[in-house]
Amino acid sequence: MDQRYAGYHVLGKWNSVSFDDTTRAVLRRRLDDVPPRRFFTEDEWRVLDALVARILPQPERALPVPVTPWIDAGLFAGQQEGFRYAGTPPVRDAWRQGLAAIEQEARLRYETGFAQLDGRSADALLRALEQGGADPDLWRGMDAAHFFIHVLVKRVAAVYYSHPQAWSEVGFGGPASPRGYVRLGFDTRDPWEAKERP
């Protein structure tokens, strides 16, 4: 983990003017109400959990930022970005098809499921997906590299960086509302923002 903001904890602002009741309610939900599995099957959940662990490893955390539950919750609720890339199935179908294809890729290459792969093998498979080295027959017309980059990695990163632990890690002070950011020039910061360690 990057140590540039070591010792900074955005939640230290909980009772300050940086957070209002709405912000605290959203954060309380994000921290305390991790949703149960409702969209993915147990097998899909296991594959996605293993993918998240390779895409954004968190070995230094006793309790990693929960990513899989929030992706599941969004799909269960039907959340979408408001557009769909040509040639990509509807978002729910894309996730099911993509996770199944990754599992089949692992079984074809290594004779075991993705969640059972060692780190080196898992990373090699993911690099192959990213670089267009997937077996097109397993993907049934969906582009593996597109799914990996624009669906999987994009969503994993979005969920991760919506969590206060990730905010603290990168020195993010939280939403601009209600306090607002004033010093917006290059290499300037408001006095209440995190200080980067030299």
Mind describing the biggest β-sheet?
none
Mean pLDDT across the residues is 92
Give the CA-based shape: elongated
Poorly predicted segments: none
Helix content: 40-55%
What is the helix/strand order? Answer: HHHHHHHH
User: What structural class should be given to the helix and strand makeup?
Assistant: mainly alpha
Q: How far is the N terminus from the C terminus?
A: 16 Å
Give the total of beta strands.
0
Rg, please? 19 Å
| Count of discrete structural domains | 1
What would your notes on this structure say?
The protein is mostly helical and 198 residues long. It has eight helices and no strands. It holds the Pfam family Gluconate_2-dh3. InterPro entries: Gluconate_2DH_su3. This is Gluconate 2-dehydrogenase subunit 3 family protein.
Question: Which features characterize this protein?
Answer:
single chain, 198 residues, mainly alpha
Short description, anyone?
It holds the Pfam family Gluconate_2-dh3. The chain has 8 helices and no strands.
SSE blueprint:
Blueprint: H1 21-32, H2 42-55, H3 68-77, H4 91-110, H5 119-130, H6 136-139, H7 144-160, H8 164-170
Helix pairs in contact: 4-7, 5-7
